Amino acid sequence: MRELEAKNYSYFEESINQSDSVKSKQIARLWIAKSKSEKNWIQLTKAYRAIIFLEYEKKRLNYVDSLITAAKKTKDAETIGQAYLTKGIVYYSQKKHNQALDNYLLADGYISQTKNKKAFYKVKYSIAHTKYYLGFYDEAISLFQECLIYFDEESDIAYLNTLHSLGLCYNKIGKYNKSSYYNKIGLLSCIELENTTMIAYFNHSEAINDYGNGNYRRAIAELKKCIPQMQTRKDFANETLANFYIGMSYWRLNQKEQAIPYFKKIDTALQKYNYTKTDLRHAYELLIDYYKKSNNQQLQLHYIDRLLKVDSILNNNYKYLSKRIFKEYDTKKLLLDKNQIKQQMITGYRVHYTVISALTGIVIFLVWRHKRNKKRYKLKFEELMSKKEIPLKQLTENNNDNGFEINPELVKTILQNLEKFEKNKKYLEKDMTLIKLSGYLKTNPKYASKVILKYRGKKTIEYISDLKIDYIVDKLKTENKFRNYTNKALADEAGFGSTQNFTKAFNKRLEMPPTFFIQQLKDSFPL
């Protein structure tokens, strides 16, 4: 361990590994000790943040206050804001919404002073969740929509989480089709991003939509499939919600005897985790009604007491959260808007005199950029056409064997099937995904993606996309009719899901837009 003490800070940051938490915690503690001894407060905040998410959930709060203290010593608004955001996230993961909101609001106060968009949208996302919890679904939707646009380009996990949150919000206001729309996008995105973690959550959300649409038997079946996955993740909140809607579905089917055990599981969650929501309150009303009609006064009184406890928790939480989110968050936003409007009015007269010069500058810039791009595209086109084969990123073997443990005979079979896949142009099928490709290769998605990465040098989505573009390029060069196709028609021909995806893939592959490439072909190589 003495060797570790002599390591530089980059070593500590790169050595933290979530899959080996025991060793990583030892490294994090040395990182903390080194930072303290050198009074490097920025590194100390990083070290505390690392160890927080390596610890068990119940122990995380032990380090959070130390993180805040270290952050304040930096006197840096962004670092302090990030520390409060981390504290809020820890509280939220424990369903302590009051404390979570307190820290989100503190984080918002600091981070709004900085230019850190990532942190800014993290806070916005957290506030949106508080709005959702309080039942202000339209306001939550507006915030989540803003986050979705940002996360689409910045973070796959945050993008999927935001899609899921939007689906939940639309479900709450009875717009089940809209909710299903976001669930479907989420499931497709999970496949495209090769992220299976969120699939259970989108299925969970869609099953709740089934309940809303009156498809009670399907809701029961799908939610029962989700529960083991929620238990594996120790996600008692979504497990409890699944139990509630299974119980409600049985109740709607007039199978009350089967509904009661699921309602009782909601009370178990209350006793074990002190967890409840406004949705779940109705289960207690039904339990009271059920035992009243069964003349079981003892259980009737028991669940009346439980309902009183639920109401007490909800009243305290909601009153507190509502007061703070409107007083400190919404009022702050209104004041910011007011100040911005005032500033715009004060400086408005200057705009009149500068707008002409600004527009002129923009036009000059756009013309210059267009000429520059056109020149660059033309040089690239000439380079491509000077060779028999377009010198794009060739499909070469990736010799990195790290983590590649597949039976050589199986690899040989997969490669043979891959060659058939390419020869028969199966990649032109609409919405070709890793799962569909795995079917053609007669293997599982994990092996398929590993073999493609090693022997074609690309991730699966890029591999399929490049094959489609190469096919279109060949058709444009050899068959005149294709040069008269629209981008939409070319996208359909290659099996792309949208014109936007086609043009984006074409640009990435050839470093020029398809329209420019086609025009150059017409001018330079007429058929």
Automatic annotation (TrEMBL):
Signal peptide: none annotated. Keywords: Cytoplasm, Membrane, Repeat, TPR repeat, Transmembrane, Transmembrane helix. It is found in: Cytoplasm. The chain crosses the membrane at residues 351-368. InterPro entries: Bac_ResReg_Asp_Phosphatase, HTH_AraC, TPR-like_helical_dom_sf, TPR_rpt. Its main location: cytoplasm. Residues 408-520 form the HTH araC/xylS-type domain. It comes from the Bacteria. Belongs to the Rap family. This is AraC family transcriptional regulator.
